[in-house]
Design brief:
This protein has 6 helices and 8 strands; from the N terminus they run ααββββαβαβαββα. It is α/β, with parallel strands linked by helices and 203 residues long. The strands form 2 sheets. It has a 6-stranded mixed β-sheet with strand order 1-8-7-4-5-6, with helices on one face. A two-stranded antiparallel ribbon has the order 2-3. β7 and β8 form a beta hairpin. It starts with 19 loop residues before the first helix and ends with a helix. The N terminus is likely disordered.
Length: 203
C-alpha cells in the first residue's frame, strides 16, 4: 500500500476490547470460540481497527463476483444503488464464529432498506460454509472464493482485507466507505453506524 494522495485517511482507529460476556454469548459449546475468548490466536489472522473514508476520498468502485454456496452467481454490479456489506470469513476462524450472530442481526435490521450483505469465504468449500451458516443462523449468502481467490483479488487496493475477519461497507456506487478489521462482536453499534451513515448519503 502506498502513501500517495489517494490513500484515504483513517478517521477513526479503535482497538477492539475483549468483553467476556459478549464473547460467551452463543459460544459456550464452541472450543475454538472459547480459545479466542481466552486469548488464543490460532486459526485466524489478527487485526483490529476501524477506518472510515469520506466520500470525496474514496477510490474507484470495486467490482467482484463469484458462485455462492448454493451454486448461484453473485455480482456486485447487481447491487449498485444499494449499500453492500462484505464480510470476509471462514468456518474455523474463531472470531468469525463469535461475530456471526451480530452480522445476522444487522442483516435482518436492514432487510428491505437498501442494504445487502454478502460473505466472502476464503478457505472453505460450499458444504463447510453451508454447515457453518446453518449452525450460526446466517441467512445471507457467501461467495466461495477458496479456489479462484477472485473476490479477494478485487479488494487488493489500499483498503484490502488484510485480516480475517474483515468487514467492508461499500457505498451506493460500489466504493469502499468503511472497513472494520477484526470481529465486530464487541462493537456492532460501530458497524451499524457505518452502514446507516453510508445509507444516508446521496448517490
Amino acid at each position: 500500500m502506498g502513501d500517495g494522495p489517494k490513500r484515504p485517511r483513517a478517521l477513526a482507529v479503535a482497538a477492539l476490547l475483549v468483553v467476556a460476556g459478549l464473547l460467551l454469548t452463543g459460544c459456550t459449546n464452541d472450543p475454538l470460540a472459547q480459545q479466542f475468548k481466552d486469548g488464543g490466536n490460532k486459526q485466524y489472522i489478527a487485526g483490529s481497527g476501524v477506518t472510515e473514508v469520506p466520500a470525496s476520498h474514496r477510490d474507484d468502485a470495486v467490482t467482484f463476483s463469484g458462485k455462492t454456496e448454493d451454486g448461484s452467481r453473485f455480482s456486485s454490479k447487481d447491487h449498485l444503488g444499494d449499500v453492500l456489506v462484505v464480510n470476509f470469513w471462514y468456518a474455523s476462524c474463531a472470531p468469525c464464529r463469535i461475530e456471526a450472530s451480530d452480522l445476522q442481526s444487522l442483516n435482518e435490521k436492514y432487510a428491505g432498506k437498501g442494504v445487502n450483505f454478502i460473505g466472502v469465504n476464503t478457505e472453505d468449500q460450499a458444504a463447510t460454509a453451508t454447515a457453518f451458516e446453518k449452525k450460526y443462523g446466517v441467512t445471507y449468502p457467501s461467495i466461495i472464493d477458496v479456489n479462484s481467490g477472485a473476490a479477494q483479488l478485487a479488494f487488493s487496493g489500499s483498503l484490502h482485507p488484510n485480516a480475517t475477519p474483515t468487514t467492508l461497507v461499500l457505498d451506493r456506487q460500489g466504493r469502499i466507505a468503511a472497513r472494520i478489521e477484526g470481529p465486530i462482536n464487541d462493537q456492532p453499534s460501530t458497524l451499524d453506524t457505518l452502514i446507516s451513515d453510508t445509507l444516508a448519503e446521496s448517490n
